[in-house]
Amino acid sequence: MTRRSRNPFSARLVWRIFLAFFVTLFAVMLGAVAITSWYLNAEREAARNDMRIAVQSAAVALAEGGREGLEAWARAQDPSGRGTVSARRGPPRLLIIDDWGLELLGRPIPPDPSGDLSAGRTTALTGSPDVIVRSSQRIPTLTSEDGERFRLLPLPPSQRRLGPLAVPNVRLSMLLMALGLTALASLWLARSITRPVLDLERATLALSAGDLDARTPPRTAQRGDELGRLAGAFDQMAARLAGLMRGREQLLRDVSHEIRSPLARMRLATGLATQGADAATQLARIEVEVGRLDALISDILDVSRLEAGVITRERLDLHAVLEGLAADAGFEAGSQGRAVEWTAPSAPCWIDGDPHWVGAAAENVVRNALRHTLPGTTVQMRLEAAQGGYALTVLDHGPGLPDDQLERVFEPFHRHTTTDAADPGGAGLGLAIAARVMRAHGGSITARNRDKREPQGLEVRLWWPAAGSAESPLSPT
After folding, report:
1. Where does a domain end: 253, 288, 310?
2. Strand, coil or helix: what is 151?
3. Residue 97 bridge partners (DSSP)
4. CB 383 within 8 A of CB 392
């Protein structure tokens, strides 16, 4: 049984797909924010440096040429005189506003350009102490030697767009990052889905080609999602098919072996009769062998019907079914010098099953016990409630079985002949039929040798689930 992952997100393929796309989009978003923030910070720092250089340059122009020198500097910075800012970053374009609120070049002034002229740090221009530079947060101010003040107002961008794609230099980085993350996530998701599908395809083709040992690789069967459960179901199906095919092959070999013996004895009897031997004796021998063949064929058909699932299910009282069987077995045992002891609760024991096959399974076990119990001993049949169902325990006083034979005793045509057994005959299908009946009813059958402190013998235990229980074939699933 494969070990399943306890991670609830890996138990469904839909969660795997959802998380792959969600994590990818989230990573792209974080990457876009990080790239944009880094670029904007770099741009902001560069703009501050350019602003400081421009203010110093304007202060030098004012110191050397006065108002006319500052006006010439402004015209050199903005030859068009329109006061627009191009998309490409360069030296900052500044509006120069005097104390009368007029712009030196006559360029339009944005609304509310005023600023706190007293705010910021005041420094004298290096090399020209008559020019005072007052650096506020937004609007630097230059004061000439005659006390005239000029405010340097940065021109606003001609167009403002929101989002990281509004920054031209960010677009290529973001595109490459998004494509890279999406490609990696898509590759992982595609391999995560297609690899188990290919494993299932190879295993299916191998099984259809006759390889009964074809299974999916552990990397696929141990997945915790739908594909892993599909692979596990395929492995179970393949194992079941392999078991059925090998079982049928073994059954054919065993049937051929079992039929060969009575046919050989019939052929020998026929030859003796044609050579003048006692015809009546040989015909009686042939009749016995025909009876054995008839019983063998009947048992083989029972095994085939059970494996094909040809059983009916109804609510029945196990106590009543087994009580009638105990009475018939006691009558038959009395003629063999043996006895049957029946013990059961007084209340009904309801199960869901086929009354014919339930009785046949118990009868095969009881007949096997009567066949092997020693003369003058008793076969015990004990019915009791156990483990959410009902258990029938059949104990004999025979030689028992070697420990390595306890599991194989339920295989078709398996027989263990002992010198202490009263009748070692039979085809070896009785207990195999009983085992198949119990499996078809959701029950179980086990065999063990009786404890050494108890009388020698074999103990066979049959267990049926109670009617309406989870294991019952009629219970809803």
Report:
1. 310
2. strand
3. 103, 151
4. yes
Output the domain CATH number for residue 329.
Answer: 3.30.565.10
Residue 287 is assigned to a structural domain of this protein: yes
The radius of gyration of the chain's CA atoms, rounded to the nearest angstrom, is: 49
What's the pLDDT tens digit per position in 196-237?
A: 888 888 888 988 888 888 888 888 888 877 788 888 898 888
> Tokens representing 432?
């195999």
Q: Assess whether 298 and 320 both reside in one domain.
A: no
| Secondary structure tally for the chain: helices H, strands E | 8, 12
Strands (E), 33-82: none
Q: Are 302 and 433 in contact (CB under 8 A)?
A: yes
Ordered DSSP codes for 306-319: HHTT----EEEEHH
Tokens of 56: 């110093």
- Within this chain, do residues 411 and 333 fall inside the same structural domain, yes or no? yes
Domain extent for 85: 13-164
Structure tokens at 143: 């004061």
Encoded amino acid at 268, one letter? L
Q: Which two tokens stand for residue 437?
A: 């009946």
| Alpha-carbon gap, residue 122 to 433, rounded angstroms | 108
Checking DSSP bridges between strand 378-386 and strand 339-343, what pairing results, if any?
A: parallel
Q: What number of other Cβ atoms are within 10 A of residue 414's Cβ? A: 15
Residue 135: strand, helix, or coil:
strand
Q: Which of 260, 261, 212 is nearest to 237 (CA)?
A: 212
Look up the pTM and report it.
0.47
The 10s digit of each residue's pLDDT in 354-388 is 888 888 889 889 988 998 899 999 999 999 998 88
- Residue that the structure tokens 């021998």 belong to: 285
Look at residue 465 and give its three-state secondary structure. Answer: strand
Put the strands of the sheet holding 458-465 in their side by side order: 339-343, 378-386, 389-395, 458-465, 444-449
